[in-house]
Specification:
CATH superfamily of the largest domain: Response regulator
Structural class: alpha/beta
Distance between the termini: 46 Å
CATH topology of the largest domain: Rossmann fold
Strand content: 5-15%
Order of helices and strands: EHEHEHEHEHHHHHH
Shape: elongated
Strand order of the largest sheet: 2-1-3-4-5
Helix content: 55-70%
């Protein structure tokens, strides 16, 4: 029996192209296509495909969220994450969520088919040369954040959350009902404890951690 596949991508041309290329191989049958994450998850629930090829960035539900839902519902479908580009954090979270494969959109069709065959046979497609450096960097960043942020007070963590959202110091003081001077003192203490010297460094270190 051919391997059944659901494909999800929010770009119709890419979606149609993938469906045509995969369907042209007699080893695969495309049973559904979708243009957003919610539709993709609904298709997986209904069709119970062997594999779902899911784009990372989609409306309503990201590829990582689809993977997390599939895993939490113990669905047997194995997820191949498709992406044009992804941050270290996105790759880390995707693999941690349970992706069986990560593949870059600019690969040739033969590479994609090899990936699907490997996943269908129970294997994974997580190339070390592509993912290894990103995972190592992200793992180190998260470990550094855990170690340094343990020194922050509850109020300082509140300020970090606001700063990560782009809130100005003046607005932080208003939101937390403190003076601007006090907010500046807190920010200075945060920088000292985290061993950084700017908001850009704070974003780099703490993004996605709160």
């Amino acid at each position: 029996m051919p391997t059944t596949v659901v494909i999800a991508d929010d770009h119709p041309v890419v979606l149609q192209g993938l469906a045509g290329l995969i369907s042209a191989n007699p080893g695969f049958t495309v049973v559904a296509t979708s243009t957003d994450g919610v539709e993709a998850l609904d298709a997986i629930r209904e069709k119970r495909p062997d594999i779902a090829v899911v784009d990372l960035n989609m409306p309503r539900m990201t590829g990582r969220q689809v993977i997390a839902a599939v895993m939490s519902e113990s669905l047997a479908t194995r997820i191949v994450l498709l992406t044009a580009a992804a941050s270290d954090a996105e790759l880390y979270d995707t693999i941690e969520a349970g992706a069986a494969a990560v593949i870059i959109k600019d690969v040739g069709i033969e590479v994609l088919l090899d990936c699907l065959k490997t996943v269908a046979a129970g294997g994974t497609w997580l190339p070390e040369n592509v993912l290894g450096p990103a995972i190592n960097r992200e793992s180190q960043r998260r470990q550094e954040w855990r170690q340094l942020s343990a020194e922050l007070t509850a109020r300082e963590l509140d300020i970090v959350r606001l700063a990560l959202d782009g809130t100005t110091t003046k607005q932080i003081s208003f939101d937390l009902d403190i003076t601007v001077g006090t907010a500046k003192v807190h920010m200075s203490n945060i920088f000292r404890k985290l061993r950084i010297s700017s908001r850009s460094e704070l974003i780099k270190l703490a993004s996605g951690q709160l």
